[in-house]
Amino acid sequence: MAIDGLTRNVLVYVDGSEECIAAAQAAVIMAKKLGANLHALYVVNVSLLEELLKARILVKLEEMDYRQDLERDGRRYLHYVAELAKKKGVEMHTELVKGVGNREVVKYVQEKGIDLLFMGEFETMHATKDTHFDEQAWIFKKAECSIMIVKRPDHVERVYNALD
Amino acid sequence: MRISDFLSESVITISIPGKEKTALIEQLLDLAFRTGKISNRDAALKALLDREKLMSTGLENGIAVPHAKTGAVKDISMALGICREGIDFQSADGKPSQLFFLLLAPENAAGPNVQVLAQIARLTNLESFRRELIEARSPAAALEIIRKAEY
Lengths: 164, 151
Fold this sequence. Notes:
The structure holds two protein chains of two kinds. Chain A has a single domain, classed as Rossmann fold, CATH 3.40.50.620. In chain A, helix 1 (18-34) packs across helix 6. Chain A has helices at residues 18-34, 46-54, 60-87, 101-112, 135-142, 153-162, and strands spanning 9-14, 37-45, 92-99, 116-120, 146-150. In chain A, strands 3-2-1-4-5 form a five-stranded parallel beta sheet, sandwiched between helices. Chain A has six helices and five strands. By secondary structure, chain A is α/β, with parallel strands linked by helices. By secondary structure, chain B is α/β, with parallel strands linked by helices. Chain B has one domain: Mannitol-specific EII, Chain A (3-Layer(aba) Sandwich). In chain B, helix 1 (21-33) packs antiparallel against helix 2. Chain B is 41% helix and 18% strand. Classes of the chains: A alpha/beta, B alpha/beta. Chains A and B meet through helix 2 and helix 3 of A and helix 3 of B.
């Protein structure tokens, strides 16, 4: 049972970046220490593909090809982070969904009663002020849970490695 | 994902002598090839031209994004061509293309590939960005315009 029930369900958002690995390690540490349930979510950003299709940058054949590739990559990333959890004796529930990354994260948080969300550090891109693309801002604003942005990946890895 | 991370002055040209689509693609490919990131120029060219056969990558507003996935690169490789006069690239709006973002992507990096394409789409969607880039007087100036837009 998690300490005083404050953190019962922990989620790590896996986006395939190097940064999300540190987030996954931190989530494993926290889930183990608190006895919380651990979830990992990967979103196949089909919306982005559809936009590229609409903009005629991709043709349908490419869009379908990328969709399959992203799904395959997502399963690989989820398997990787699940192994990180398994190594520390923590069970991880993994889920791959299709949609808009930030919206699916917010939806998952609500549906699964997530108390704490871990994310890797996002890139800052002033060219993408369009809120549709500003994933981090959207999640901060809409997610109904506490959020931890994991920095100092070397430090997190050391703590993860030292975990019994 | 910033496209300026994949560009350098050496892969940007504001001097495009030809007015023919394939010649332009080859010129940009050669710039990228000189970086040493492309293991097989012919295979990369074939991938780009095969993609053009599906549908021209000439978009609207003077933008073209010739691109392909190929085993000839291990990491994303880019080049940028700027031609103020414009070239017929069989664009979606029938107008001459002026900005050419060539992108070669490895077979096994769908996420980054899609993000780079999306970033090109977002940047070139900004009218002020397109206008500034078309007016760039040197590769260094072009790179600075892109960096400024991304950071």
